[in-house]
Amino acid sequence: MDAAIPVVFTAVAVLITLVPLAVAVRAGHRLLWIRRAVHGGVRAEGRCVRVYTTVGSTGEGPTRSRQHFVFEFRTADGRDVRFEDAGAPGTTIEGDRLTVAYVPGAPERALVVPAGYRVPYGQLALTFAFLGIFVAVGIVLVLGGVQFADAFGSVADPADFGGEGF
Questions:
Q1: pLDDT tens readout for residues 52-67
Q2: Distance between CA 58 and CA 68 in Å, rounded?
Q3: Number of domains, the chain
Q4: Which residues cross the membrane (predicted)?
């Protein structure tokens, strides 16, 4: 049973490292998509067709509300597309007309681009810095787990196999 403790410790440390890496990859992919839509995509006039709020609660803590905005626009080839964009300005109401940007191959993934919109590179940099802290802690824990396992003697030693090496 004692030999399992270092293995579990190392597995948890690996998860602590891999989860932030996965989040960072997803955030980077999202930023690249936004950049592609804003700089290389097509722009169209969109209209807010619905605004609604969802309310969530964890049971004991405070309730949280989130506004959702549904937009509709017509693509260059004449298709009507609806999409939801939580990043729309909070003052948006039904009937408002805003500019949307989309990649022609996937117009349902459009986004609202208000006047003066800039791709949020700074936000991504802060996200990477924050996640980098978790990755660094995870790496330290993984290395510590390996040493922890070595201290418990669960790491194979070549001498245990009757030789000097494999």
A1: 999 887 777 788 888 9
A2: 20
A3: 1
A4: 6-25, 124-148
